[in-house]
Amino acid sequence: MSGGPDESSVRVALRIRPQLAKEKIEGCHICTYVMPGEPQLVLGKDKAFTYDHVFDMDTQQESIYTHCTESLIEGCFEGYNATIFAYGQTGSGKTYTMGTGFDVNIEEDELGIIPRAINHLFRGVEERRQAATEQGKPVPEFKINAQFLELYNEEVLDLFDSTRDIEARKQRSNVKIHEDANGGIYTVGVTTRTVTSAAEMIQCLKLGALSRTTASTQMNAQSSRSHAIFTIHLCQVRVCSLDNDDNVTDNRLANSSEINEFETLTAKFHFVDLAGSERLKRTGATGDRAKEGISINCGLLALGNVISALGDRSKRSSHVPYRDSKLTRLLQDSLGGNSQTVMIACVSPSDRDFMETLNTLKYANRARNIKNKVMVNQDKASQQISTLRTEIARLQMELMEYKTGKRMVGEDGMEGINDLVHENSMLQTENNNLRVRVKAMQETIDAQRARLTQILTDQANQVLAKAGEGSEEIGNMIQNYIKEIEELRAKLLESEAVNESLRKSLSRASTRPSLYGGPGGSFSPALLAPEKEASDVIEMAKKSLEKLKKKERKKKKRVLSKRKCRTTTTSEATRRQRRAATTKRARTRMERRRTLTWWETRRLTILTLTNWRRKKTSRPTWPTSPARSPSSRS
Ligand SMILES: Nc1ncnc2c1ncn2[C@@H]1O[C@H](COP(=O)(O)OP(=O)(O)OP(=O)(O)O)[C@@H](O)[C@H]1O
Ligand SMILES: [Mg+2]
Known about the structure:
alpha+beta; 3-stranded antiparallel beta sheet; 18 helices; disordered C terminus; binds adenosine-5'-triphosphate; binds magnesium ion
């Protein structure tokens, strides 16, 4: 909140007023076209302009308020200044839009921006007070006051001054414009009304508006002959909201102390209803009216020069002529200063105002380039508290980093981040990458194994089918066996790889004399253990293999001797019986295998393979080892 200024562009909205009865009677045509769904206006045939908002003839006052002013009032509650000003040729609807006209029979939905803003402001005050009461927090205090000035013939006049007479506007006013240390503009000698309700403020506005200089011209029956600036000052004392800092440490500090810290926020909102630019030929002004018209145009020209200087990127660094007129001096904050600013450019849709409308559109286009520097208006004590709180949080974070070893002071006294932190983060990244790779590879292996199993099963089934012995049951059984064999093979390969790496690490360790007391030195039992274990396993595997080979040989002999005795023809029934028995045996074996250890499973598989080999001697071929290539399996 107490940070530096944020850049915010001046937002520009365009409002086209409906055709007046007079214009319709005189047969004027509409020369404006708003692109549907786009904030774009086409003037005549081909002059297109884009703004932040474009409001066509039928737009209601409420919609203008919602889009252009609502957020600015909310910003005031957070300490941001705001300005909204209406610009355009005479009779284009500026006073109607701002709501300073005050017709006697004005309807609720015809209320302009200022009365709506006043209602919104006081509603906001009430809501905030109520919310604080409900949450059991101290109720925020608000002080609202208003000023109403008019700039008539380059003189600043106080519209709240009830003592001034009509002739006073011809004398020199004693209102002075000053600049504070931060570049903010303020006035001296102006009546400031402190108000406590919306109704009171609207009453003030009405009185001020009625004493504003207006006169009838050929272009507007109630033409404003001065620029009017209505200013609301809002001062708020509230409990600091810690949510904005989103800082855990801060919250902890506040909770532990349980002391409410207050901040004072101020904001000023300028509502500016400019007098319209006019061509004396068209307004038919003479005498005082002509003098007013010239003065109005001078003020608007100075405003245009300021907008050009601020909006033109090439001229940005050059001098901005704020002091050329009192209007630009009063609006110095609003254009290029600390304020969120919206300009409402008002235009007539009639073709006879084509040139004036085009000028307004160009003027508005330049204003879009202005960048303001907005910042929260917070009192010094609150700012300091906020800065200190941020500093405490930063220091606590730093302390935590020192404690955890993330930060350290080097030998040269320079502080820096521990190398281990960098290394650790790099390793973590690498680890994550490797994990992803391993997962991908594992999936590939599974897929390949499934493919291999399928191929081998198909081959085996083909062989059996050729021999006329294939059946679905046997096929499934074969598939299960092959699957199992493949899994065991994978495990074996894995164990061999582990074994190999253990062997390598052991041999490396043995060549490191410094660590293990030189070659031939004594190894620690922990390091020898894996090697011993591995060689034990290999020994056991060899023995088991030998045993199985012996058994197989014996069985072969037995089978051969039995076959000699057996009759050559076997009935179909016997064969079926035998097949059923084989399937049953296989199932039992599968059941058992689920509970067997790795070594028992391996032994069983080898036995199964041996049985197949035995059968192979009397039947057509079947692959003895799934790993062999098909060509070598005959
Ligand atoms: N959106 C609108 N809907 C209906 N009537 C409008 C609208 N805008 C302007 N008017 C009417 O047009 C006339 C001129 O409007 P207004 O006095 O607001 O113009 P202005 O721009 O303030 O002119 P000036 O610069 O001379 O003061 C008024 O009668 C007003 O009621
Ligand atoms: Mg007006």
